[in-house]
TrEMBL record:
It is found in: Membrane. It comes from Gossypium darwinii (Darwin's cotton). GO terms for molecular function: heme binding; iron ion binding; monooxygenase activity; oxidoreductase activity, acting on paired donors, with incorporation or reduction of molecular oxygen. This is Cytochrome P450 85A1. Its cofactor is heme. Belongs to the cytochrome P450 family. GO terms for biological process: brassinosteroid biosynthetic process; brassinosteroid homeostasis; sterol metabolic process. PANTHER family: CYTOCHROME P450 26 (PTHR24286), CYTOCHROME P450 85A-LIKE (PTHR24286:SF105). Its main location: membrane. Keywords: Heme, Iron, Membrane, Metal-binding, Monooxygenase, Oxidoreductase, Transmembrane, Transmembrane helix. SUPFAM superfamilies: Cytochrome P450. The keyword Transmembrane applies. It is a single-pass membrane protein. GO terms for cellular component: membrane.
């Protein structure tokens, strides 16, 4: 229905599909071997997967959508929670300043540095637990299922709402408290009730890439800047119940 967000989203999707079709045409007319996903997908026709154009476009849109909003929202919410919890920020900054001590000015961080960022990983998981970006998981039943006396027939598409699990006081004591330390050394990430990145064979394929991106952002952010919140912030409820529309912060140089 015109005027609704759904309608706007649909119009947006049409524009993206048009753009991608044009790019695909240009790519097909070119002999350049691009080093990107679109190039691989276009050449999937030579492999056993043989994706149609529609499927290739769908893959690109899925990756753009899944890979952008999740990482940017998690980064923003980490900045918010760290601002509100100076002890956590201090420990996180300490972790990153230790890494910087082993580097020359401007030298990039490496894989081993990233793997040593255990508190950072805990901060990201705690942020994702409280500010859950993906509320639930889509699945299709492959057989009739009885759940609490209700039958879900075979073939139904179901949305498994997983967000509330993150606030269960039996699983996460004091669930509304931002406590990254709860993730350290307890292997909480691998528990079968942790659905932050989904589960089973459809587990988020971008999980490690997403964690890496947020970690690298935090590395440079906390070692370069201080920040304070400015303006009203009522949209960022705790825990977040609506998509946040933005975080207003004033940034200054950490070393100044
Ligand atoms: C903090 C970052 C991220 C979070 C919290 C997140 C979370 C999730 C969740 C909960 C799912 C559903 C999994 C399921 O159904 O079991 C999912 C699926 C997916 N994610 Fe992520 N994700 C993140 C980053 C990324 C990145 C960086 C990419 C790629 C660049 C990505 C690509 C995908 C794709 C393609 C799917 C669909 C997988 C499928 O249906 O088989 N995600 N993600």
């Amino acid at each position: 229905m015109p005027g609704t967000s759904y309608h706007l989203g649909f119009q947006g999707r049409k524009r993206i599909v048009k753009m991608l079709k044009q790019i695909m045409e240009q790519r097909r007319a070119s002999s350049i071997a691009y080093d990107d996903i679109l190039y691989c997908l276009l050449h999937s026709k030579d492999s056993k997967y043989n994706l149609s154009d529609e499927e290739i476009i769908d893959q690109i849109i899925t990756i753009l959508y899944s890979g952008y909003e999740t990482v940017s929202t998690t980064s923003m919410m980490a900045v918010k929670y760290l601002h509100d919890h100076p002890k956590a920020l201090e420990e996180l900054r300490e972790e990153h300043l230790e890494i910087r001590k082993t580097k020359k000015p401007g030298e990039a961080v490496h894989w081993d540095d990233y793997k040593s960022m255990s508190f950072t990983r805990a901060v990201i998981f705690e942020t994702s637990r409280l500010a859950t970006v993906v509320n639930g998981l889509l699945r299709k039943t492959t057989e009739d299922m009885v759940l609490n006396g209700f039958t879900i027939p075979k073939g139904w598409k179901i949305y498994v709402y997983t967000r509330e699990i993150n606030y269960d006081p039996f699983l996460y004591p004091e669930p509304l408290t931002f406590n990254p330390w709860r993730w350290l050394g307890k292997n909480l990430e691998s528990h079968n009730y942790c659905f932050i990145f989904g589960g089973g064979s459809r587990l988020c394929p971008g999980k490690e890439l997403g964690l890496l991106q947020v970690s690298i952002f935090l590395h440079y952010f906390v070692t370069s800047y201080r920040w304070e919140e400015v303006g009203r912030n009522e949209i960022l409820q705790f825990p977040r119940v609506e998509a946040p529309k933005g975080l207003h912060i004033r940034i200054s140089n950490y070393h100044a």
